[in-house]
Amino acid sequence: MLLYGLLGFAAGLPFYMFSTVLALRLQAHGVALTVLGFFAWVQLLPTLKFVWAPLLDRYDIPGFGRYWGRRRGWIMLAQLGIFTAMIAMAATSTDASLAVTALFAVLLAFWTTTLEIAADAWRIELYPTQDQQGPIVAANLWGYRSAMVAAGSGALLIADSGGWAFAYLLIAAAAFLPFPILVAMRSHEPARSGGRTSALVTGLVASVVILALACAVTAAVGWVVLDVAARAGIDANSNVTPWVLGLCMLPFVAMAVMLPRIRRAPADAGIRTSTVLGPYVDFFWRYSYGAILLMVFVSLYRMGDVLALNLSKPMIKGLGYSLSQIGRADSLVALAASMIGVGLGGFLVTRWPMAWTLTIGAVVAALGNFGFVWLAHQRVDEAILYVATAGDQFGNGFAGAVFVVYLSMLVNPRYPGAQYAFLTGFAFLLPRLLAGAGGAMVGAIGYDGFFLLSGVLSLAAILFVPALSRIVPRKEDS
């Protein structure tokens, strides 16, 4: 539990730095609200982690993997990636070029997600039952949310006095702390334990090459995307919401088209034995048409939290609160409320049926979003901000803990890394696509309408809960 608290802390520190903190930084530099919404699409990287998750199940990092094992080797590489990306974001903290800012934000999101993939796969391998998952998920989320508070409130307080570059540098140093601890850990596999120093040197050299290649590929892809967007006439005044909604429908259409073929596929069929596609085809083979219902449910369940994340702080700042006031609210108040929510959710999921805990999680998460509407109509008072922040973080923490356990129970233990990455990635695909259009939505319906809508969408997930208990996976046929 202590180890997973540490891993959660390492993954949580960078998250706010490419989401909420970045949104406030861009707002401070005069970036338009619609463009702020576009930057929410950086958070799409975690939703696409199923693309590279099979690599983490199959390959070792040279050097690191030989001594520390596959999972820890990938975690160490990801730590180096997080550190270098945040140093780069500190060096470009004036946001003189939004394209460069986006490049390093994407790299930070990529390596943060890679860290989560490796840690989640290890967790599912070590703790396969619901009773075991509750405590370990709570420990992991305590560390994760502690880090988010440290990064969110700490970065804002530091930025208010020392500037954005200094804030990113300090958070980068804090995010790197687990790396020497991992290096000092012994190998749990005696066959791999020879040559710690040579393994470390080899791993560092390999990491430099991998990080450089990742940066080059990201820059090239980003250049193509920006060029296509410019040719399509997309700018700060564009209403991209209809296009986003259309894109959101494509995964559901693709699943419906492929399911009949997947259901008939024998155990030795190429699509089921494929290294790349096999883990994902297995999920749809096991759940059949119930998989579509599961995907709709998981897409809606965290909708409110994701939509609120990117624009809640700019709204609060616009109400007249200072960065220091927002930072103080996001420190002890948010940390205490979040940890209580995570702890209660992790406890109840070991005692109550999953349907009840999922329902309660959706309700408290929606109430947290409705709290922002209430806040907008109150006088500027730091105590009132604390109440709204506590409600939001409690609901977020409770729903998050329950949701992680639920998704972990859907996974086939044969493919823990790939299938959990797919489920969590798909769960946030629709919310994060819509979050990118959040600025345009606020322009059309206002902040009140935006947060009311996000809360109602979270509540809509409850409609699916009664049907979930009737979805039973098929037994293996080989």
UniProtKB/TrEMBL annotation:
Q: Give the membrane topology.
A: Multi-pass membrane protein
SUPFAM superfamilies according to UniProt: MFS general substrate transporter
List the InterPro entries hit by this protein, alphabetically.
AmpG_permease/AT-1 (IPR004752), MFS_trans_sf (IPR036259)
Q: Does the keyword Membrane apply?
A: yes
What GO terms fall under cellular component here? membrane
* Database matches in Gene3D superfamilies: MFS general substrate transporter like domains (1.20.1250.20)
What is its subcellular localisation? Membrane
Please give the chief subcellular localization of this protein.
membrane
Q: What keywords sit in the KW lines?
A: Membrane, Transmembrane, Transmembrane helix, Transport
Q: What is this protein called?
A: AmpG family muropeptide MFS transporter
